[in-house]
Design goal:
Blueprint (H helix, E strand, L loop, with lengths): L14 H14 L6 H40 L1 H20 L1 H28 L1
């Protein structure tokens, strides 16, 4: 029986290999969207537009304020007043970022509230 391997069974299991196979498979299988996942996406879509607008306005305001500061510090003899004016304009733009965020987020909440409330009612049942 030493040379007879007909009745032997060999099995190798690798958890990492199985995980990799499942990960690859999940890329190609159509997912049915879960209601909880839909609720998360809707919730994120309420704040995302306001965040993006506020970030863009904040960066622009910061750059303008920095330009004013540079004019003041580097060419203070000739561009002092201009640097102060540009810096104050930059600060005003920077200060407008939060009110813009609040306004856009409020509009998005009003727009998506019925869908979000309907989904939460379904999930709580």
């Amino acid at each position: 029986m030493e040379g007879n391997n007909e009745n032997t069974f060999e099995y190798t299991y690798s958890a990492k290999r199985q995980e990799e196979i499942e990960k690859i498979k999940s890329k190609y299988v159509e997912k049915e969207e879960d209601k909880m996942e839909m609720l998360r996406k809707l919730d994120q879509s309420v704040e995302r537009p306001g965040n993006m607008a506020a970030i863009i306005i904040g960066v622009i305001g910061t750059l303008i304020m920095g330009t004013g500061m540079s004019l003041i510090m580097v060419w203070q003899d000739t561009f002092l007043i201009l640097g102060i004016v540009i810096g104050v304009i930059g600060m005003a733009i920077l200060g407008a970022a939060y009110p813009v965020y609040r306004s856009i987020t409020k509009k998005q909440k009003e727009k998506l509230a019925p869908q979000i409330l309907a989904l939460t009612e379904e999930l709580l049942k």
